[in-house]
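re: ur question from yesterday

yeah so i grabbed the chain u mentioned. its 246 aa long if i counted rite. heres the sequnce exactly as i have it in my notes:
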Amino acid sequence: MTSICSACKQTIVNNSLKKICQPCQQIFCTNCLYQRIAVPKLNYQMHEVCSSCFHSISTQMMLQKPPKGFMQRIEQQQQLPAQRRMPPMNQLDPETQALEERLQKLRMAFPSSTPSTGANAMLSSTADTPDDLLQQMNDALAIEQNERNEQKSLEERLRVLHATMPPATPNTVVLSKTKVEEEVNDEDEEFPWCTVCNENATKRCLDCDELFCEACARKIHRQSSYKNHELESYRPSAKAKKKYNY
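ran it thru and got these structure tokens back, copy pasting raw so excuse formatting
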């Protein structure tokens, strides 16, 4: 049975090339149905949608208010003092002060090639379409990732510098790997919140590799495509509980 693509109006002879846009239930060919997005009315599952539905859902998601749990987390974080605020140089112990001075010299010797505009400037510019906003957001995330990579590169160069320097003077300091490893672990630490409603997570899906609260875990994994997923109880570490007010 032949069908007609709702976008390009071409006849679809092969059923394997026929696709259905789940939000609007219209038929499209593979060339016209290729964009993927989380559909709100389908429990935010990822689906291939047509261009009209893609722009409509993107605009809807950008204009809707954030979840109540997410806003509560933001308010709690704003009330907490800065956890990683560095003390003045004259208050650091001699070992840390020496490391900071050498790291500053490395930064001067190897200046960053990342544009100084930053991620916030990318997001603050005016965009005409939802696609422009999404592209700017991706560019901003890429800039932040480059900054983190350059920071790690500087730390690696500093570690190599300490490994190659002979202990010839009393001022030579052995690089402490513990502090560097703790910073890396802090960056890799996951938020102990439900990925849907931002409430405290109590379940982890081993197949989705996501955290859920009890209600969202039952709601999402009640569907046929998620029934076979394996769930396990989740409890954050003591450090995460204290840091994120779990």
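noticed a couple things. Strands lie at 3-4, 11-12, 18-20, 27-29, 35-39, 45-49, 203-205, 210-212, 231-233. also The chain is about 45% helix and 10% strand.
anyway ttyl
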